[in-house]
């Protein structure tokens, strides 16, 4: 609808390359039938899956295990009105396979403060979408929305 | 569950004071029955409502008008493992009152790139929650999750 709105759609590999640059994203899920969002540090697996590490007994695990979630990361320079935003959407599940848990204990995200019993949550990258905001007089945010029209 | 996890719950006024410092947040909603999240620039109204400005014909408007949404803003320094995160949850609605639209045209958020026909979306601040991450060896993200346990 707004072909010159300053946005560039990003390909899957470009999205994952950008996401890998930032340490923190935001998991979007449903809690008590309400939309919920929680910042969380993460790491990308080789196949683009989003990996989180959290307490086994956490509310987050109860809320997202087996559910489809979105995971968003961005890097925006408001002064330049430029940056990017990537969203991975797919089912989330606690990693239960012992070998996989052991692998992620070596290569997965590290808890900034350890919990007594930790699990890894894996978000399958079924849908990976992203946009680059090219800056200048082009916008941010509002145009993200306008672009959808 | 983790009383010394480095988090400090923020009061409503503190949340709104922090949110007012950043130009961009993320609206969390449901699109085609899937969780969706979109960065967007915003402004806070005097009562703490989140104000967005977008194209009347946008997909965002169709998705959120009349729905309960979450709006998240944060500012995290990963190197210091410190920062804050605030979430406003409440019903979103397009502002239809002409006088209110006129007021927001003067005082509301400014589109970084104008759309042909713009509307304001107002998110009622029914629930305002936030946390400050105090830094040091305390964590981020993973502990946000652990804190929920």
What are the main properties of this structure?
alpha+beta; globular; Pnp Oxidase, Chain A; 4 helices; homodimer; 9 strands; 149 residues; disordered C terminus
What would your notes on this structure say?
Chains A, B: This is Pyridoxamine 5'-phosphate oxidase family protein. The structure is a homodimer of 149-residue chains. With 149 residues, chain A is α+β, with helices and mostly antiparallel strands. The first copy, chain A, has a single domain, classed as Pnp Oxidase, Chain A, CATH 2.30.110. Chain A has 4 helices and 9 strands; from the N terminus they run E-H-E-E-E-E-H-E-E-H-E-E-H. In chain A, strands 1, 2, 3, 4, 5, 6, 7, 8 and 9 form a 9-stranded antiparallel β-sheet that branches. In chain A, a hairpin with a 4-residue loop joins strand 6 and strand 7. Chains A and B meet through strand 2, strand 3, strand 5, helix 2 and strand 6 of A and strand 2, strand 3, strand 5, helix 2 and strand 6 of B.
CATH homology group of chain A: Electron Transport, Fmn-binding Protein, Chain A
- The poorly predicted ranges of chain A are 136-149
Largest interface: A-B, 58 and 58 residues
Order of helices and strands of chain A: EHEEEEHEEHEEH
- What is the annotated CATH architecture of chain A? Roll
Helix fraction bin of chain A: 10-25%
Number of domains of chain A: 1
Largest sheet of chain A: 9 strands, antiparallel
CATH class of chain A: Mainly Beta
Average pLDDT figure of chain A: 86
Number of helices of chain A: 4
- Globally, the shape of chain A reads globular
Distance between the first and last residues' Cα of chain A: 6 Å
The beta-strand count of chain A equals 9
- Report strand % of chain A: 35-45%
Oligomer: homodimer
Structural class assignment of chain A? alpha+beta
Rg of chain A is 16 Å
CATH topology of chain A: Pnp Oxidase, Chain A
Protein name (chains A, B): Pyridoxamine 5'-phosphate oxidase family protein
InterPro entries (chains A, B): Pyridox_Oxase-rel, Split_barrel_FMN-bd
């Amino acid at each position: 609808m707004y072909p010159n709105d300053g946005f560039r759609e990003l390909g899957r590999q470009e999205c994952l390359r950008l996401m890998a640059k930032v340490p923190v994203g935001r998991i979007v899920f449903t809690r008590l039938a309400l939309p919920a969002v929680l910042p969380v540090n993460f790491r990308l697996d080789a196949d683009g899956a989003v990996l989180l590490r959290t307490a086994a007994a956490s509310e987050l695990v109860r809320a997202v295990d087996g559910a489809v979630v979105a995971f968003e990361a961005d890097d925006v320079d408001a002064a330049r009105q430029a940056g990017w935003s990537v969203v991975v959407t797919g089912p989330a599940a606690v990693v239960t396979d012992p070998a996989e848990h052991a692998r992620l204990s070596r290569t997965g995200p590290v808890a900034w403060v350890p919990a007594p019993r930790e699990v890894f949550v894996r978000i399958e990258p079924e849908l990976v979408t992203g946009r680059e905001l090219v800056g200048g007089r082009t916008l941010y945010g509002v145009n993200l929305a306008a672009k959808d029209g």
